[in-house]
Specification:
two-stranded antiparallel sheet, mainly beta
């Protein structure tokens, strides 16, 4: 499937690109002319400063050069695009990347980025260190990702699912409110999680201890964390604890009314 959706003042622009086929495959040269003409038509017929959101599915990396026309773009969604690098888009706030399997680099000019989601990628080893304003980060099935940025001071919502080679979280996550981690080699959680409210952890075989200073924690869900043996008794605001197949946790220092064991 090949698709481009462009939104002007929040409304989708109803302009179609002709999808020519040759022997059941897209002819790259013809398709490139279509895309270039399409973007130029949008650029000259609409105020480019008001193009805030673009969604692209199934294109090659040549399309990225055309994206630079829209320097005020705030939201970009790429699905199944054969790209290696994300271009410089200095005003981007939200970036969603799914099944762009050759992507190996994200531009370092992402200072204003607030939300980032990357799914099904095996070529990305690390994220840029300039994600200073990032508030929400979702990483799903990024098999070779080994490092997160050190400076995620504004991060509030973190989801990591099946990122097999990720072992450590950044040390300073003091603004984080919600964590979901599943199927990773995370060894420990940082001691900076003093403001976290919701934690869900599944299949963390190497996790042996939880920080004891998470005084604002309200919800804790643990599943198949086999090496975790105890829950600290310092979670003074805890309202719900759910344990699923955590057989080595023998003692839970909280009222039975808030504990659910499966």
């Amino acid at each position: 499937m090949v698709r481009i959706d462009i939104y002007y003042f929040g409304e989708e622009i109803k302009t179609e690109i002709e999808k020519r086929k040759l022997d059941n495959f897209f002819h790259k040269d013809i398709l490139y002319e279509d895309v270039r003409d399409y973007f130029l038509k949008i650029y000259f017929n609409y105020n480019p400063q008001s193009i805030k959101r673009i969604e692209i599915e199934g294109y090659d990396d040549y399309i990225l050069e055309e994206l630079k026309l829209f320097s005020y773009l705030m939201e970009l969604k790429l699905i199944k695009c054969d790209i290696i690098q994300i271009p410089d888009l200095p005003n981007l706030r939200k970036l969603y990347i799914s099944e762009c399997k050759n992507l190996s680099d994200i531009s370092y000019d992402v200072l204003k980025l607030e939300e980032l989601e990357i799914c099904f990628n095996n070529n990305l080893y690390q994220l840029p260190e300039t994600l200073y304003n990032l508030q929400k980060l979702n990483l799903l099935h990024c098999k070779n990702l080994i490092k997160l940025p050190d400076y995620l001071y504004n991060l509030q919502d973190l989801t990591i699912n099946n990122c097999d080679n990720l072992k450590y979280l950044p040390k300073n996550l003091s603004n984080l409110k919600k964590i979901y981690i599943c199927g990773c080699d995370i060894i420990n959680l940082p001691s900076s999680l003093i403001n976290v409210n919701y934690i869900t952890l599944y299949c963390l075989d190497d996790l042996k201890i939880l920080p004891d200073n998470m005084i604002n924690l309200k919800y804790l869900e643990l599943g198949a964390c086999f090496n975790l043996k105890e829950i600290p008794n310092t979670f003074i605001n805890i309202e719900k604890i759910i344990l699923k197949n955590c057989k080595n946790i023998k003692y839970i220092p909280y009222s039975k009314n808030i504990i659910e064991i499966h």
